[in-house]
Automatic annotation (TrEMBL):
This is Phenylacetate-coenzyme A ligase. PANTHER family: BLR5969 PROTEIN. Residues 362-450 form the AMP-dependent ligase C-terminal domain. The keyword Ligase applies. Its EC number is 6.2.1.30. Residues 108-304 form the AMP-dependent synthetase/ligase domain. It holds the Pfam family AMP-binding_C_2. It comes from the Bacteria.
Amino acid sequence: MLMTGVRQTTDINYKYWSPAEVMPHSELKKLQFERLLEQINYLWKKSPFYRSKWENSGFYPGKLKTLEDIRYIPLLVKEEIRVSQEKNPPYGMMQVPGSGPFIRVGMTSGTTGKPVLIPLTEEDYFGVFCEGHVRVVWAAGVRKGDIVHVAFGFTPFLGLAAAYDSCEHLIGSLVVPGGAWNSLMRLSMIEKLGVTVLMGTPSYILHLASVAQEHDIDPRSLGIRVICTAGEPGAMSAPNTGLRLEKAWGSKVYDYCGTQETNCIAWTCEEGAAHLNEDLLYYEVLDPETNEPVKPGQPGKLVVTDLVQKTHPCIRFETGDIVNGIETDTGCSCGRTLRKFKGFKGRVGDIIKIRGVCVSVTGIENVIRGIEECSNNYEYHALKDKNGMDKIKVRIEPQKSIDSSLWNDVRQKVAESLYIAFMINMDVEVLPPGTLPVFNLKAKRFRDLR
């Protein structure tokens, strides 16, 4: 059975939402293997998609003797999901035959191509998907007495929706919707309703603070106690982004990440460590070239296997993310035994190798967000120079308070900081404040113009 911590209670005397958070890691690995075996046997019997895919690769359930034997299962890429939905609309392989009825349909953002539809039963949504997300807000200290505002447009995007539903239905907090509100209306209602918890993408919540300041409102005066960010790299991957948020709002910042196809991958605890939902998902970090496991703690591409939910389990799903690795140490001063995630380098297509150096959006963001003269907005381009060699151009905006006569000084400071971080020269272009786009959900900061 699923070891959930699902409960609707006013009790605030327990620290951990789920007993899995403090399970001895040796027992957790046994649980992972039991769930993996159950999942594979279930799909072998129920899913024509997986049965055919696995038989063609030479895999069958009997090959699973240990967790490490997962390597015998072929990888799943998002394009296979898209093709299956084109051939068998609307859900394709994302619906195991016989599963349903559905209470929620999710949809990916389309960052890497045509969006994928994700159907969810009540058990899979509240019992599994929200179980992965409620740990985020519980660890952040969100309780029944909080007033929560989730600052995003109400679309089928599941990540922030699951946090919304976790606060409302599982914890019992008052959750304030505002999908069509502009930033000024949000700020007005945050103040009027006494919102204590704010959720959204790091980019948008930083933008919201800027709008407040432009209208002579100090964001720190609004009483936001906790900020939870998701949807793009935040504090766990770009620490300077977290510091900017804390400084702007005077709030404690928590970050989480995941995929809509699987679940919440990792979330930060009160000590700032990012913990993995290891009872719900199995994680692999593979060499992007060979698909072999990297050494423990080393960077590579993240592959995730859904251990629990039964509508659309993704087995060895290539997330498309390059990560910094997973720590082998299972100890944390918060008391949790779930292993710690070291954050993202970036999407596979967003990482450019220049003279042997990998340049990623999170690395660039961390540099820019650490320079106080820079605004929150930036983007970077991959280009060819006159000799046909790859190069990077970074476009920034200075803070509005910086006189234009000092913009070149800002440009030089950014260029020098990028060189120190990456040991390569990058072109830096300074644009007038307000030139670059502002994003409410996932920010698109990379353009490949080669």
